[in-house]
Amino acid sequence: QVQLVESGGGLVQPGGTLRLSCAVSRSIASIDNIGWYRQAPEKQRELVASITSSGSTNYVDSVKGRFTISRWDARNTVYLLMNSLKPEDTAVYYCNRAPGLWYPWGQGTQVIVSA
To answer: Best exposed site among 32, 50, 69, 108 by fewest CB in 10 Å?
Structure first.
């Protein structure tokens, strides 16, 4: 069973930066599309960024220009660099295949953007 372990979250002030990491327990080289999702309190989980095996990326409008997704296939790791963070970015962040055929969800990593 594939395991996903997210890390790197924390408390940051508005305008700050965080880099999230997602360690995958299997090779990701053959995963066509993998992404970062987030779920804010009382909201549905949304896909915010994804990256294909060829390196093509896609972002939800609310994070375009601020977030950058990348993947390091040799380390089976996916990253999300988040710049210019806003309070509305506060959520638990998860990684998984995109847009569906999900693996079991990891525990996520909490991001809190607050002064």
So the answer is: 32
